[in-house]
Amino acid sequence: xxxxxxxxxxxxxxxxxxxxxxxxxxxxxxxxxxxxxxxxxxxxxxxxxxxxxxxxxxxxxxxxxxxxxxxxxxxxxxxxxxxxxxxxxxxxxxxxxxxxxxxxxxxxxxxxxxxxxxxxxxxxxxxxxxxxxxxxxxxxxxxxx
Length: 145
Prior knowledge:
The chain is an alpha/beta fold. It is built from five helices and five strands, in the order E-H-E-H-E-H-E-H-E-H.
């Protein structure tokens, strides 16, 4: 019976996009993948506030590049310069496939990038690659020699 229990749990995911349709589409794709905890905000400053909230952490942040106030590259810069946020994976999202923007994002520390319109398969593959490996099951004491 123990093999029927899933040891994988959802991730804590932050979605940051100023376009309501894009936010909802991405939320829908991410929530269909697994039982993730999803927080959605409409701008970089709101995301920055949440990222720094005591006791709160995110495994992944999907961040739109073009936003008013604090854009995605600015938010990425803040995240990468804050030691406490070092484990947060950032997936930059944009409608632009501009190579110079992609190069700048990589230079700033982005390891993941998706182009709008979102493809559910691409988002699912990103989440599967980002997910930390599950902890090994506890072994009975007799196996600890």
